[in-house]
User: Fold these one by one.
Assistant:
Number 1:
Amino acid sequence: MMLSLIISLAVITVTYILQCNQVYHPSPSTNSHEDYLIRKNSKHYEEIGCSINGLYEISCRKEEKEVFVPFSFLSKYYEVYGKLTVAKGKEKFEWSHSYSKVFKPTTKYDPSGVFMYFNNYNVEVRDRVKCISATEGVPVSTQWEASGYYYPVQVAQFGLSHYSKNLTEPRPKLRNLEDGSNSTAKWNVPVGASISRKYEPITNSWVVEFHSADDNSITLKLKPGSELVLNANLLFKDKNGSLTVLLEDRERFQLYSVSFVCSPELLSVSTSTVGEGSNFTVYYGLGSCEDWAILTRDLYVDLLKGNVLLGRGKKLSRSNLRALSIALKGSGYLDSLAISSSNHVDMFYSSADWLVRHQDTRGGWPIGVKRKMASGRADLNPGWYSAMGQGQAMSLLMRAFYRSGKSQYLEAALNGMKPFSISSGEGGVRAYFMNQYPWYEEYPTIPPSFVLNGFIYSLIGLYDVLTLAPEDRSSDARLLFDQGMHTLKKLLPLFDTGSGTVYDLRHFTLGLPPNLARWDYHAAHVNQLLLLSTIDRDPILTTIAERWLNYMQGKRAAHN
Ligand SMILES: *[C@@H]1O[C@H](CO)[C@@H](O)[C@H](O)[C@H]1NC(C)=O
Ligand SMILES: *[C@@H]1O[C@H](CO)[C@@H](O)[C@H](O)[C@H]1NC(C)=O
Ligand SMILES: *[C@@H]1O[C@H](CO)[C@@H](O)[C@H](O)[C@H]1NC(C)=O
Ligand SMILES: *[C@@H]1O[C@H](CO)[C@@H](O)[C@H](O)[C@H]1NC(C)=O
C-alpha cells in the first residue's frame, strides 16, 4: 500500500539521487543549480519531511498532492536497485527488484555438457580465492580461514567452469615454444651457460636440459601476442632454479615478473625499482621440486593475486598485459613449453585429478576448516564432508570420465556417494526432515540446516552419475536421486516466503529468524529448479520456479 502511494520519480528526484550516489543522505542541500533546474522545469516542488514509521525523518519533495521519496532511501529500505540509463538519447531510470539473472534452459540438461551457466563463472578471480596453487593447479580458498585451504566445492566449481568454457568459447590460440625435439626456439644462452636436448626415457620424450652458471639466466624472447596462459613441464636439479615470465602492462609501462621457484611457500611478492619504473615479482612455490612440475598457469590471474596480496587491489587489465620473455635459472629439464590464449582442458583435468588424489577412504573430500553456522550453535569441526562438495565433485568427475574414459574418475565419483548413506551424526551428510524425508546436507549440522541450493547441487551430481555411469554401476545413484527428488518436491513449499525464498530451514530447526536468501541465491534456486524441470516433468518444479521468478520482478504472493 504505502509503496504505491509514495513512489514515483521525476527528473529532479533522480538528479538528487545521482549526487547521493545511492547512499541515503538525510538532508540534501538545495544549491542554486538545483533551484535553477526546478525553475526551468517550472514545476513547484517543495521540501517536506517524511516520517518513516514514526521512527525518524528524511527529506522528501512534494508536488501538489504527490510526494517524492529519494530513491537512495527506498533502495536501502526495500533493497531494490535502480540506475539511470540512456535510450534513444533520452534519460531513463530503471528500477529492478533483483540484481541477479535467471538463465532459462533451452534444452534438456546434459550431464556431459555445460554445467548450468558455469561458463560465465570465473572462480579464480573471486576475492575468496587466494591464488591457484602451483603444486596442485587448483584454487586455494580463504573464505573461512585466512591462511588458505583447499575447498572441494571451489575446486570442483573451478573445474566445472573450465569444462563449460571449453564447450562455449572459441578455440584457443596456441604457440608451441619448445618441446625438446625439433623446436625452433632461439634461446639466448649467456657465456658459461648451456642448453641441450636429451631423450628422457621415463616420459618417452625429448626434453631440454639447461644449466645457467651464475646469476645470468637463459632467456627466450616471445613474439608479440596477447596469449597469457603458460604451459611448461619442469624439473629442477637444484633447489635454487626458477622459471620466470616477464610481462608488461602496455598502458602503465609497468614490468611484472611471475616466477616459479622451489619453495613450500604458496605465494609471495617482492618489489624493486628499475630505472624509472618498478619491477614487481610474484613468486609461486613448486614445493620440494623432487618431481616434474606440470604447469598450466593463467599469468594474468597469477599477477592479479600478487597485486591483491600487496594491497594493490584488482586494477589489472588483461588486455593491456603482454608476455615478453621467459627466463630459466639454475639447472634442470624443460618440456612442452607453450603459451596460449586459454587452456580450459588442462585446468579442468587439474581439478579432476586433485579430487582423485584427495578423496579419503570413506569416499569423502574432507573440509579442513571449522564452519560456524549460527553463533556457536551447530558448528562443524574440521574434517566434515559437504553433500554439495560431494555432488559437485561427482558432476566434475563424471565429465572427466566421459571425456577421457579413464576409470579412476568413475570410481572416485561412485565412491563419492558413500557419505550420502551415512547420517550427519556419524560423519556423513544424510539428514531426515521430521524423521521422514531424507536430505543431503551441504552443511551436515546437528540439528540439520537443510540448505536448499547445496541439496539440489548434490541431486545434480547424483543425476550425472546415474546418467553417465555404466548401467550396472548406476543403481545406487538412481536410488539416492529418486529419494532426494521425492523429498525436494515435498519440502520446496517450505522455502517460499511469498516474496522470496529462504536459504535454509534454520528458523525451523534452530529456532532462529528465517535466513532469507539474497537475490543471487534466490536466482540460483530458480535456475536449479528450471534445470531439474528439464529432466523431471512433474509440474510442481515449473510452477514453483515461475512463482519464484516473479518475486524477482516484485510480484508477490497475494495476501488475505
Ligand atoms: C576444448 O577441448 C578440445 C579437446 O581437448 C580442444 O580441441 C578444444 O580446442 C578446446 N576448446 C576450448 C575453447 O578450450
Ligand atoms: C618433429 O618434426 C617432424 C618432421 O617435421 C615431425 O614429424 C614430428 O612430429 C616433430 N616432433 C614433434 C615432437 O613435434
Ligand atoms: C645452486 O645450487 C647448486 C647446488 O646446490 C650450487 O652448486 C650452485 O652454486 C647454486 N647456484 C646459485 C646461482 O646459487
Ligand atoms: C625483476 O626482479 C626479478 C626478481 O628480483 C629479477 O629476477 C628480474 O631480473 C628483474 N627484472 C628486471 C627487468 O629488472
Number 2:
Amino acid sequence: MDFIYLDNNATTPLNPVVLESMLPFLKEDYGNASSVHELGRRARTALEKSRGQIADLFNAKPEEIIFTSCGTESDNYAILGTAYLPENRHKQIITSKIEHHAVLHTVEFLEKQGYPAVYLDVDENGIIKLDQLEKALEKETSLVSIMYANNEVGSLQPIEQIAKMCNEKGVKFHTDAVQAFAKHPVDMSKIPIDMLSLSAHKIYGPKGVGAMYIRKGVKLFRLMHGGHHEKNKRPGTENVAGIVGLATAARRLQNNHEEENKRLSLLRDKLQTALLNNIPDCYVNGMNAARLANTLNIRFDYVEGESILLHLDMEGICASSGSACTSDTLEPSHVLLAMCVPKERAHGSIRFSLGETNTEEQIDKVIDLMPTLIKKLRSMSPLGHKSNK
Ligand SMILES: *Cc1c(COP(=O)(O)O)cnc(C)c1O
C-alpha cells in the first residue's frame, strides 16, 4: 500500500540524500573517531566537519556543539546537568505545561528531589504568558526551559523575548528546539540562548542521533562517565554515520526552509480550510497561534480521535492523536488540557503533521475522505450528534 504519511512530528522518512551521505561511514569508513590511524582520522574529519556545519547554522562556534543519542538525551542533559551543579542544588526551575515529556518528566523528577518547579500556563493558542514568567523569575532560579515549537499543536513561543528576560536576570535558558530546528533558524550571536536541543529524525535524518548547542562558558554537571569524547561532556564512541546524516539533513532543510515552509503552509491551510468548511463542529486547536507550517491539530466533537485514526489507518493514512509518546495511553493530551480544551473534546482531536514527501494530491485525498468518515463515526457514536438526527 502507498501510505499517505501525515505524522512527521512523530518522525520523518529518511531523505535519500541524507542516506547517501551516511553510507560511506556504515561501509568502508568504519573507523573510531578517537583512533589515530587513517580510518580513525577519516571518521574524525567527518565528525568535525559535521560539527562545524551545524555550528554554522547557528552562527555559533564548533566547540559549542556536542552530539548526543537523541533529543531526549539533550533535554535531560541540559536540565539535570544544570540542576545538579553544586551551586544550583534545590534552586527553582521554570518550564511550561506544554513541554515534551523529555522536559516535563525530567523537571518532575527533580521536583521529587526537592527542587521547586514552576510550570507556566499557556493561553488557548498554546503560548506562554510572559508576565507569568517575569513573576516566576523573581524567585532565585537556576534554569528556564521552554520549548521553541510545540510538537502537538505547533505553537511557536516568543523565544527571543524569553531568552532576553532570562539573560537580564542571569538565569540560564534552555530551549527544546527539536521541532523548530532548521525550520526556524536561530542566530546565537543575536539571541542569548544558553542551551538548545535538537534531533535528527524530526528533520528527515536518522533516528538515534541528536545534538546540543551549549554556549561557551555554560557549565554542566556530568551525567555519564567514560572516555574523553565530545569535549569531555558526553562520553561514548561517536555515531559518525548518524552525525553526518544529521548535518546533511540540517543543512538541506535550513538552506531551503523559506520555500519549504511556504509550500507546507499552503498545503496545511488547504487541508484546514476544507475540513473546517465541510465538517460541522470541528475546531483547530491553536488556530491563531504563530505555528509551525506543517502542523494541524484539529478537534471533531462527538467522536473519538482514536477511532478516526483507526479508520484513516485502514485507508493507509498515518496521522496521530497528538503526541506519539502518549498515544498508547488513554489520557487526554496534557498540551490540549493546558490550552483549556475540555477533556472530552481533547479526546476528539487528531494531529496531521505534513512533511517534504507530501503532495497536493495526497492532501486532496484526505480532504475527500474526512467528511464522510466523520459523519459515519458520529452516526455510530454513543456521544451522539445533532447533525445526524
Ligand atoms: C521528538 C521530540 C523530542 C524527543 O526527541 P527524540 O530524538 O525522539 O528523543 C523532544 N522534544 C520534542 C519537542 C519532540 O518533538
